[in-house]
Each structure stands twice: as structure tokens, then as C-alpha cells.
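Contributing: when you submit paired examples, paste them exactly as shown. First protein:
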Amino acid sequence: MTLDPLAGDLYRMQDLLDPEEREILERVRAFLQAEVAPIANDCWARAEFPHHLVKGYGDLGIAGLAYEECPGETPSSLLSGFLALEMARTDPSMATFFGVHTGLAMGSIAHCGSREQRLRWLPDMGLLTRIGAFALTEPTGGSDVSHGMRTTARRDGDVWVLNGSKRWIGNGTFADLTVVWARDADGGAVRGFVVEKGTPGFTATKIENKIALRTVQNADLTFTDCRVPETDRLARADGFRDTAHILRRTRSGVAWQAVGVMLAAYEIARDYAVEREQFGRPIAKFQLVQDLLVKMLGNATACLGMVVRLAQLQDAGSYRDEHSALAKAYCTTRMRETVGWARELMAGNGIVLDYDIGRFVADSEALYSYEGTREINTLIVGRAVTGQSAFV
């Protein structure tokens, strides 16, 4: 199957997908363009999540592809990356919703859960009949959460009692299952728990007044003597290294999302330049406009090449923390630059939702920060290349 080329994929990277993968990507692209793109600006403006689309995402059959407990063949990392790119190219908010559910929540259960736990939760999550969230960040602990985690879990017979709070939890207001990371009061190890919606002592409050990813329902979570059965403690989560394993792979997903945002910005700006006339001709005929477009295309192309190679390393089983950390740090930095150039090219029209680019400019700020700031990812790479840790 031949996919329609993306305007910003100058080197035709998507042609590296095999025919079956191209068919999956084409099906997802058609759904996003028909169902998500037309309402993206409205949902963003109202800061409301389009719950009616969840079944459509489930019907695509892609949420559980990476997990053996769900039907279907495991996809290549290249296909998973292009799916993340395609979702972010349409709407970074919905890409974040999907990434939190499939990468962070399902990934935690797949990596840290027992066989019984994986079979209990993953099939339904693969169909999106049960939605997941991932609760790690705290009000006073973002980059430092591995050392400064204040949410505690105390063993009381066959249950664990959770106390503390989490912040910036995507899908947190409506998730059926939330993977919560807490420090064991006896010994200090970081453990993972699956907390079901409606559990007494567990409350979720929507974070208001965001200027980025407004469609994403981020929440403040509070745990007050919240009792979670031992059967819902992730059996193979014994320390923060298990949490870090999840973040290594999801960071690469954010790098792919950043490329999707860059491609969207380039496509929007390029189409605008061809149609917009000033001084009696399309602005695409001006040298400075072409310079901006080529710089945007260069950023997107370089970053796409980086994440394609990262996917190859993942499939070969040879990728390391520094690989995903460098991709996340570099691609999100170039993304910020690229969406800024797109807004510059579009002048005043770039700051209104009518022309789409304003949403991508705002959303890029969130992608730049989550899944590890640029500074933290820089330190991960710096430690790898020098052998010296600069972490405090």
C-alpha cells in the first residue's frame, strides 16, 4: 500500500514501513482527519475532552498492539513512532491522552505487573473500555520526584494505605485505573499500585487555567488513608529503576510527538504562504519566507531521521537511556523553534485558533517540559558520554 506522502517528509521516511504497517497508519490517519481534526480547536478552546471519540480510538485496534496480552501482532517501534507522530500532527492533546493510556499506564502494568494482573487489566485497556492514568509527579516533586517523593504507602495486613498527593496527572479526572507510585513507609522503596476510580480516600480535581494541551484533563490527585488491596500492588515494581524503565520508552514517544508537531507547523505555514498574498503576490515568492520554510523543514527532517534511528535501536534491543533522552531533549527544542517560525511567518493570523498554528505553539510548551525537562535529559546524556554524574 502506498501512503499519501506527508508534505514535510522530504526523504520519505514513512516508506520504511512495511505494507501492513502502512495500512494501519493510513487507517489511523483517516480517522484523525475525519473525526479529530474538525473539533480539535473547539475542544481546546473549551478545555473539554471529547469522550465520544474514545470508542473510535478503541475500534482502531492499536492501543494494545505492543502487549502480548492483547490481540494482534506486536508492531515495530517504527510503526509505534509514526502513530505517535500522526496523532500529534493532528492534535497534541489527543496524542497525549493516547500516550498516557497506552505508554505510561499500560506500560507500567505490562512491565511491573504479574501475569494475573496483566491479564486482568490489559485486554480491556487495549480496547479502551477502561482508561488508564499514570501518577508520578507531585506538587513539590517533578524532576526530583525519584528522591523527593512524599506520597507514602504503608502495609496494613492485606492492604496498603496510601497518603499524599500527585499533580499534572493526564486523564486523571476520568481514568478508570490510575497507576500510582508511592514510597514504602517501611524501607523507602518506590512501589507501584493500581488504584481504581471511586476508591474511598482517592479524589481527583481538574487543573484549570492551562495555556497548553487544554483538551487533556490534567488533575490534582489526593490520597487520604486510601486503602488498596495487596492484589493491586504491581508485583514486580521494587524501586524507581522500574519507573525509569517506563519513562525511557515513553520519552522516545514524546520525541516522535515533537516531530509530528513540527510537521504540522511546516504544513500549515507552507499552505498559508502559498495562499496568502501581500504586495500583489503570494508571500511564498518572498525569499525570507522561503528561508523560514526551509529552516522549519530542516528541523523536522533532522529530527525525523533521529527518531527513525532510535526506533531501529529499540527493535534491535540495543537502545539505552541516553538514546531516548537525547531525542526527547533535542527534538522538543527544535520543535519550539519550528512552531515559532511558523507563527512568525503567519504574523497576526498565527495567534488565533482559526489558523490552527496557535494551538500547536501553545501545546509545544507542554511537550517541551513533560517526560523530563531538557535540562534533566541533558544530564542523562552527559552522564553517559562522560562517565560522570552531574545530578545533585
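Second protein:
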Amino acid sequence: MTEDLRQGLRGAAADFYQRGWMLGTAGNLSARSRADRFWITASGRPKDRLTLEDFVEMDLTGQVHRAPDGRRPSAEASIHQAIYRQVPDAQVIYHVHSVEANLCGHFAVDGLLRLPSLEMLKGLGVAAAEPQVDLPVFPNFVEVPQIAAAMERSFAQALPPVPGALIHLHGVTAWGRDGTAARHHLELLEYCFRYLVQAKLLAIGA
């Protein structure tokens, strides 16, 4: 089962690399191995050729339990910890750095990005016709634990209306009950970002 989790993350990382979302060593992915632990990509590893040794198992307090070859967890592990602590349904988390996500951070108002009122939002759990949905946008602090703390405070008060969040000039994070759901959610958010960028270019309403 553990190997299957890591294999799923490897496949997702290679896919996202090909899409231009995880270039260099950017981005990180994780999956719960049990209620209080998760596997996460190791720091500084190229996402197009991860091996099973490129994942670290840690718990929700930040303690590392398994680290092949002394690997260190992603520098953004605290973001994953915060989401797993606050979102019980989150079993897999994907954090990527796409151009469109970073452009859309500029469109946020008071820490919220209004998503386009598309039918596609049903795939993010919003069933209303032409809904008004705001995605939370968090500041990109130099110290990642500050980002995680801001997310955790916000999520403790109310979870986002869709399974995702944006970090300004940094990237987007999406989660789901399994790898397939997390990938669908990420793809739909990225579609919304591309739509918003095109809408700005064409000077039309979203």
C-alpha cells in the first residue's frame, strides 16, 4: 500500500512536470499513509524522475519517521500538515507552480479570487447555476511556516468553498479524497485560471 501511494505521487509528478507546472524542482505532492502520517516529496528532487526513495514519511507535528538516504522533506511540508490537520477529507495534496496561477494572484481582492461562474465548478463541488465562488489567496511569506499558519487559521474558521487555495506569486494547492480526485480538482482550478487570464486579455467579464 505504501509503495502504491508513492507510485501514484510519482506518476502525478511526471504528468505535472510535462504540463510545465513543476519545472526544476518546484512543487510538492503528498498522500496520507495513515490518519496522522503522510508521504511527501523530498526537498530538491526533480519531479520528472522521482524514485520511491525520493519520498519522506512524516507526521502532522513535523516529525520525520522514514527518510530514505537521509532525504529531507519538502520545505513546504508545513502547508501539507496544516491542510491534513484541518481538512479530514484530504487524503492527497498537490502543490504546483503554474504561470496562470501566479498571474491570477494579481486579480484577487482582499485575499479572495472570484472564480469564473462556469459549469465546470460542479467538478469542484459547487452545484449552483452560475455560482459566485471565491478562492482564498494567501500572502507568500519568505518563511513557509508563516504561510501554513495563515492557512490553518483561516481553515479553522471556515474551509474554502472548493478544495483548493492560492498562494500569491507562489502557486496553487489542491486536495482530494484520493489521487484521482486531487488531480481533477487541480485541473479544474487551472482551467479557471486560464479562463481568467484570457478574459482579462479580451477585456470581458468572467
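If you have annotations for the second protein, write them as plain sentences, like these:
The radius of gyration is 16 Å.
The chain is about 35% helix and 20% strand.
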